[in-house]
Amino acid sequence: MSVQPLLAEIRRNRLLWLLVFVPLLFAAEMAKPEAHTLLFVLSVLAIVPLAALLSHATESVAARTGDAIGGLLNATLGNLTEMVIAITALAAGQYLLVKASIAGVIVTNALFMLGMSFLLGGLKHHSQEFNRVGARFQASLLFLATVALLVPSAVTFADATSGAAFTRTLSLGLALVLIVAYGLGMLFSLKTHREFFGSVAHGDEGESPWPMGLALGTLAAVTVLVALVSHVFVASVQQAAEAFGMTPAFVGFIVVALVGGAAEMASAFSGARKNRLDLSVGIALGSASQIALFVAPMLVLLSYVVGPAPMDLQLWPGAVIMMLIATLTAALVTNGGRSAWFLGVLVVFVYLIFAMTLYLLPPRVTG
Amino acid sequence: MSVQPLLAEIRRNRLLWLLVFVPLLFAAEMAKPEAHTLLFVLSVLAIVPLAALLSHATESVAARTGDAIGGLLNATLGNLTEMVIAITALAAGQYLLVKASIAGVIVTNALFMLGMSFLLGGLKHHSQEFNRVGARFQASLLFLATVALLVPSAVTFADATSGAAFTRTLSLGLALVLIVAYGLGMLFSLKTHREFFGSVAHGDEGESPWPMGLALGTLAAVTVLVALVSHVFVASVQQAAEAFGMTPAFVGFIVVALVGGAAEMASAFSGARKNRLDLSVGIALGSASQIALFVAPMLVLLSYVVGPAPMDLQLWPGAVIMMLIATLTAALVTNGGRSAWFLGVLVVFVYLIFAMTLYLLPPRVTG
Amino acid sequence: MSVQPLLAEIRRNRLLWLLVFVPLLFAAEMAKPEAHTLLFVLSVLAIVPLAALLSHATESVAARTGDAIGGLLNATLGNLTEMVIAITALAAGQYLLVKASIAGVIVTNALFMLGMSFLLGGLKHHSQEFNRVGARFQASLLFLATVALLVPSAVTFADATSGAAFTRTLSLGLALVLIVAYGLGMLFSLKTHREFFGSVAHGDEGESPWPMGLALGTLAAVTVLVALVSHVFVASVQQAAEAFGMTPAFVGFIVVALVGGAAEMASAFSGARKNRLDLSVGIALGSASQIALFVAPMLVLLSYVVGPAPMDLQLWPGAVIMMLIATLTAALVTNGGRSAWFLGVLVVFVYLIFAMTLYLLPPRVTG
User: Fold this and answer.
1) Contact C88, C234 (CB under 8 A)
2) Considering only CA atoms, which of A355, A187, A173 is closest in space to residue A258?
3) Is C13 left (phi over 0), alpha (psi -120 to 50) or beta?
4) pLDDT, mean of residues A1-20
């Protein structure tokens, strides 16, 4: 099996040069297992290129297996990095980190990824039009998926007396409903209504896909590497966060979401600069929907197997408000089908204000 | 007066075959007045065909009296079943049941009726377009009517110290404002801007209207029957709900709304399958607006006459959140003017999750 | 410097005849400094024509200085009246009044000014179309600006334990972010994307601008007069409000907003009756955005200089809910690009219900 295309990709894509931090991280962990801050920074830097590789390998496998299976792979493995990080945190019993990263990826995609796409696209093009019908459809899906995900939190928030057993049962039932919805959603987007999502499926079509063997090998090897790096990340995050004055909520919400989504962001921003905002909107909203409909319920179900105790879907009130605002914002700004740089600025500023709030928030509040 | 058309309608419409449960219910009540669960089930089964008959009789009177008075009748008697059930519960002092059924009809229309219309229409037609301008206008009306209805709950929710006297005064003032708004709304839809609502007014125009005498006689007789059946329903609901493990909130919110709206749903779903989604959207949103602008304030005013004490419009927080989400969802999904089956699936799933939550919720929370 | 055009304007514009109350107010304050109720009524009547003069003078300066500087002036001085009132209240330590007036101007513009424009326009024209793209863009800006403004309140509302120091730091950081956003927004609307806002910038173009000297002189003199009148207003408001049975929240939210915005409302309503709803929507939403992005953060920063203590941006929960509902409503109703009188009625009724609620609310709740 030739690794030629892999090396070519590494030469071409500067993001992948960060791969040098993967061996550095493992070396540092051997040498100084107590240097939590250093290990945290190195693991963050190491995850970014691994996520980019995973994304490229997934797309290559998808391109070689035909539309139906390929779409299925893209749809399930598209957020593989976030999922591996979350499973590692789940196994370590860090449920706050898991929940914060679920909420954070949705908010980050709906505000930061979308807003930066508008901003970067708008700096190059005076005013950009995009397909309103598709964008509205995807924004509706995201809104509905998020609302469904938030029902246990909203009920518990509104009625403080409802109790933990109720929340756990509701979360489990909800997880099953969401997974069925996700399955139907794949039937819809891959089988009956493929044309609604067509332009989004395969990312940057400029690149030629890797050979099957290389792609599968990379997929397997990099998944293992992400798991190993995540292990260090999760083990070091608490002390490192304290050293940087960050709350666990901030780390889960902002850091995990930005790090895990770096590869998708690169695609979305490049689409925006090429005046293909449809692509950017599709990546941002589609990936956020996938977290709500697939990753979050999978993590609830997995918590019964790998976690120390069942995890519910109850988020702290601030996260609920941020998620609702983020998805409503995404629905409002994509609704017009027209964008200019200042719209991007405002959406990104709302994200910055959320990040600032989470950074300043006393840790106990999100507990 | 010939009852021929009535018998013909009963032969034609299988929903009306359930009329057999009306005499069965009265027989059972005579024989076993303590069999609450049986009486509950029979009364539910008996209300469905009576509601369908009421709806048909109202439309026949409306068709014979010309557009203005006909429209007025349709608009005031369209939710007659729900209103008779609610008045019976009001007289029995079951305010939680009354309030839950107000909230439930709005949520059920905006989510279940709309979502099932999208789903059933989408299973037959690949992608359905509907009149965006009309749908948006009606979704805006519903949103505003719901927001107005929710002000007392929101204020009391936000400021727990505001007190019962304040809530009661505010509810009374609000009821008067809403009824004025409703009157102006009828002026608008029947007089000045009839063309906005034209296609919706007369339901399935395939059926020929009954003669006036038969229609009026049916209207009167069936209203009395609904009142009698509602009486049994309200008397049996509490014990029966306990036997089925249902909270009063669940019964009011889900059961009353589904049972009372069965006839309208049959029209909406049949419209959707005939690719007339405008009709379905109009029925679903129009009927929900009518509950907020007319039925709810009428019940507040009536509570001063028939109830043991004045009723306010304060709902429990979970109901407020569900109503806001339902009307926002209706606004978002009708906004695009395009539907496909999966959109319907998601809207119905949000409804299912709400129903599941209400079913699991401990009873005291909604008290 | 000829004051001829000033006198001509006073003869032409009947709103300015209220100027007679300015000397009456100062006379009354000399004669009866304890007659709080009288002073309050007179100061309200005196502010209305001063606000109209300020607005006219600002537009004249703007028209004479060319588009860029003129736009800048219009954008910063457009809410000068509200700002002078708020600064006077700030210096007097009446923070509740300041915050209520910030919230109130946003809600009043988004509901009352917009709704009355729809209603007054709709009474003259059967159905009015307006530029959807522009209106949606402005509604998105207003929604985002309001959301940003509400983050400290939402977080504190959701997490009661977060503490005053946190809220103050967050409010300060937020004020800086909002001012940067405002600066970028001016760059956007005056420089890079002037055509998006073009039709709105100069108000009623029927009037010929005043000579520069007169305009600048009027601007300076009237600002001083507004400050003097505001001083009496703020000093008398508390006792007068009690005499009328009004809470401070009601005065700030409703009275200040209606009084300070009278001149803009006159322009918006006149635009609506001339079937230029674009103008009305632009004034209503643009002025509300300006309060959120410029006036509110300026007041936070100024509180460090002129106030007895730093002011945070934490509003009471009811105000947060009203602001969110008002901006969502504005987004929904402008979304369709079509208006008729009943839509205006409903929007105005939501405002009336808010006003009724604030009037009935016990004073301690908003404390």
Assistant:
1) yes
2) A355
3) beta
4) 84
Q: B85: which 2 tokens?
A: 């059930």
Tell which A residues from 328 to 357 touch C, by Cβ distance under 8 Å.
Answer: 328-329, 332-333, 335-336, 338, 340-343, 345-347, 349-350, 352-354, 356-357
Looking at residue B148, what DSSP letter applies? H
For residue A365, the model assigns a pLDDT of 47
State both tokens at A97: 């980190």
pLDDT band of A203, cuts 50, 70, 90: very low
Helices C341-360 + C317-335 axis angle, to 10: 180
Closest by CA to A344, choosing from A123, A141, A135, A137, is A123
Both structure tokens of C164: 């005053």
> pLDDT tens digits, residue range B42-82?
999 998 899 888 888 888 887 777 666 766 676 677 788 88
Residues in chain B where the model's pLDDT stays below 50: 198-205, 365, 367
Distance CA A161, CA C269 (A): 49
Residues in C closer than 8 angstroms to A346, CB to CB, are 140-141, 144-145, 148, 181
- Shortest Cα distance, chain B CAs vs residue C303, angstroms: 27
Say if residues A365 and A136 touch (Cβ distance below 8 Å). Answer: no
Q: Please tell me which of the candidates B320, B338, B349 has its beta carbon nearest to residue A148.
A: B349
Residue B112 C-alpha, separation from nearest chain C C-alpha, in angstroms: 22
Chain centroid offset of residue B335 CA: 23
Residues of A in contact with C174 (CB under 8 A): 353, 356
C24 Cβ under 8 Å from any chain A Cβ: no
pLDDT value for A127: 86
Query: Nearest 10 degrees: CA dihedral of A63, A68, A71, A72?
Result: -120
Instruction: Single out the residue of A78, A11, A84 nearest to residue A267, CA to CA.
Output: A78
Distance CA A138, CA A283 (A): 10
Instruction: Yes or no: say if C89 and C101 are a contact pair by the CB < 8 Å rule.
Output: yes
pLDDT at C303 over 90: yes
pTM value is 0.85
Backbone angles phi, psi at A338, to 5 degrees: -140, 140
Q: What is the pLDDT of residues A119-142, one digit of tens each?
A: 999 999 988 888 777 787 788 888
- Enter the tokens of residue A112: 């930061």
Q: How far is C335 from chain B (nearest CA, A)?
A: 8
* DSSP assignment string, A262-317: HHHHHHHHHHHHTT-HHHHHHHHHHHHHHIIIIIHHHHHHHHTTTSSS----PPPH
